[in-house]
Amino acid sequence: MSDPQRLHPAAILEYLVRNIRALLEMLIPVLVVLFSSPLQRKWTILLLLLFFALYISYAILYWLRYRYGVDDEEFRVEYGVFVNKNIYIPLERIQSVQTSAGVIQRLFGLVKLEVQTAGGGKEAEVSLPAITWQQSQELQQMLEASSPQRLLDDQTDPQYQEKRIPFRQLMVAASTSNGLGVVVVGAMALISQIEQMLPDLNIYEWLGMHVSGYLHQGPMVWVIGIALILLSAWVLSILGTLLRLGGFVLRREENKLLVSRGWLEKRHVSIPLKRIQAVKIVEGVLRQPFGLATVYVVSAGHGDEAGQDTIVFPIMPVGEVEAFLDQFLPEFRLEKELHPLQPAARNRYYSIFTIPVLLVCIPISVFYPYGFFTLLLPAAAWLLGRMQFRDGGWLIRDDQIVIRFRMVGRLSYLIPRRRIQSLELRQTILQKRKGLLSFKLQLASSLGGTEVGLNGLNWQEGNTILEWLYKKQDIHPTISCASLSSSRMSGGSQEPEKND
Amino acid sequence: MYDIPANQLDTRAVSYWKWKGFITCLFEFIIPLGYYAAYYFGGWPLWPFYILFILWAVWMLVRVFIIPAILWKTWRYDISEQEIDFLRGILIKKRTLIPMVRVQHVDTGQGPLMRRFGLAELSISTAAGSHEIPALAEETAHALRQRISVLARVVEEDV
To answer: What CATH number does domain B77-154 carry, 2.20.110, 2.30.29, 1.20.950, 1.25.10?
Structure first.
């Protein structure tokens, strides 16, 4: 490298912190052994100090050996303490450059820079953990020579459309986020882990006692306990969302969207428009009653966070989505009136969850006291099936298909035809009797692939989709059909004419 | 749905699947065998072993003598200059359509058993995953691979 650069020394600290968990996991068994051995305390502490000294010097060596730079049309990184590692990425292969700033970076006024190439997995190919703002700007100039990425700062650039999230909306977003479920599940998992590790503690009773102050007071204790757990999970999820989405700014430039978000850790993501595969609008189950939706884009190559679609706006009234798309993503169009699903499919939707849940709940309600309460579950399942049937819909207009369906929340996908990687129609024996079928579209996404589809179309509708996808494929104009038919193998006996 | 794709797999696919099914079943014999060990060393009751054994035997017969022929009969494909089209499935019929413009790369693959039968499988990858035609004559597979790669290259486009 002609002009190799080092990371900022804060990278040492970052390295230490990043690896501290792994270190502790490694160390704890050693400590247990040491402290239970007859060896003198003094020696143990000395050993520990030595260990930490080694660890810190390793981090320093790591920093010393870490060099990066741009040379010969390649982005080069050389690092490694014992084994020398070199990463060379040709500049034209670089898909995106993102910067973010965590707590450590912010303390020193630094940024972390991540370089992604196409086809990479969830992790960034190269991540420079701590460089100065100046360095990152220079590097981005070099890496994205043709279109230098500008980061969103607090000044508004009148040249471009921009949308910020008002604090009140952010609070609404946070308090209705589905992160709630995640936290509850996490808390439950934690509790059951503790119970398995310390069966004598009897964690549930302990929790019941400490949470409510009374132990053997019947089901009321449980109700209160659970309510408290839910409440604290909710507060945690609000905090999490605030930190993640605080200060959200979206900006549209000619050929990309820029998203900037986060309070503790600032993230800047740039999404080239040509990588956007679809727009996804999610009306979460807690938000739908308030008429609120979140807008995502599905993009190939990289996502916002590992394996997720990118949020382009955290929350807005459903009625504003259309105007929002006009302003920021005019390539996509929201449709209001969709084709409903076939009435013949109704029973499938009504029974698909209800019957299995019934099969479980009936024996429970017969054999357990209070078991009949579980019969609320099949009712809920029926209701969900009913909503899924009502919300399912699709529409093809020009070069875009809109697919709407419900998992728990309601999702709408807006998919341009040329982004469809493949189409699958399927028909089970049961569906065949009713003349129904289901379809699935495969899209490229940060996960590698996403499938979007619906159950309960009739076969004419299936054909419509098939022909829409097939008919107007943008075939290169210079390819002549004559030359192809002469080279046709046994595989291609289908005549193109018959599809006109 | 639509018109049925014209091409079928190579007829040798049936015997290949028979052998493949047979070999897989030999490995699956570990299940009744495992239970027998539990009976022998652990003193578990013997009768479940008979049930497992009979299930295994029936499964093997179905696997070897029935499924391959039906599978062959139901598998159809078409490769035109605009799209790749599969129709398959015994209980669940599946029709897959891949626009040629979306094809990223094509591979042929051949295990040792396939080589014995002169077969190869063709796998077609898009940015969202890959799709396989399971048993083609070697020459057909290679010819198709060539053809698809030419067709897909003509319409190069961003993901």
So the answer is: 2.30.29
How far apart, in whole angstroms, are the C-alpha atoms of residue A81 and residue B125?
39
d(CA B154, CA A426): 30
Structural domain includes residue A415: yes
The reply to whether residue A423 touches residue B97, judged by beta carbons under 8 angstroms, is yes
Q: Are residues A286 and A335 in the same domain?
A: yes
- Whether A442 and A450 have beta carbons less than 8 Å apart is answered as yes
Domains in chain A, number: 4
Shared domain check, A347 and A377: yes
Query: Residue A461: which domain range?
Result: 249-341+392-471
Same domain, A268 and A416: yes
Strands B129-137 and B119-126: antiparallel
* Residues of A in Cβ contact (< 8 Å) with B99: 420, 422, 469-470, 473
Beta partners for A71? A74
Give pLDDT, residue A208: 57
Q: For chain A, say whether B110 makes contact (Cβ under 8 Å).
A: no
Per-residue buried b or exposed e for A242-275, using 16+ beta carbons within 10 Å of the residue's own CB: bebbbbbbbbbbeebbbbbbbeeebbbbbbbeeb
**φ and ψ at A493, to 5 degrees?**
-85, -5
pLDDT of residue A287: 85
List of chain A residues with pLDDT < 70 = 1-2, 37-40, 95, 117-124, 144-159, 178-222, 301-307, 447, 471-500
How much is the pTM?
A: 0.70
Cβ contact (<8 Å) for B128 and A275? no
Cβ–Cβ pairs < 8 A, chains A and B:
142
ipTM of predicted complex: 0.82
Out of A463, A470, A494, the one facing B1 most closely (by C-beta) is A463
Beta carbons of A487 and B146 less than 8 angstroms apart: no
- Kindly state whether residues A47 and A125 are assigned to the same domain: yes
Amino acid (1-letter code) at residue A167: F
The SS3 assignment for A271 reads: strand
Residue A215: CB partners within 8 Å, gap ≥ 6? A205, A208, A209, A221
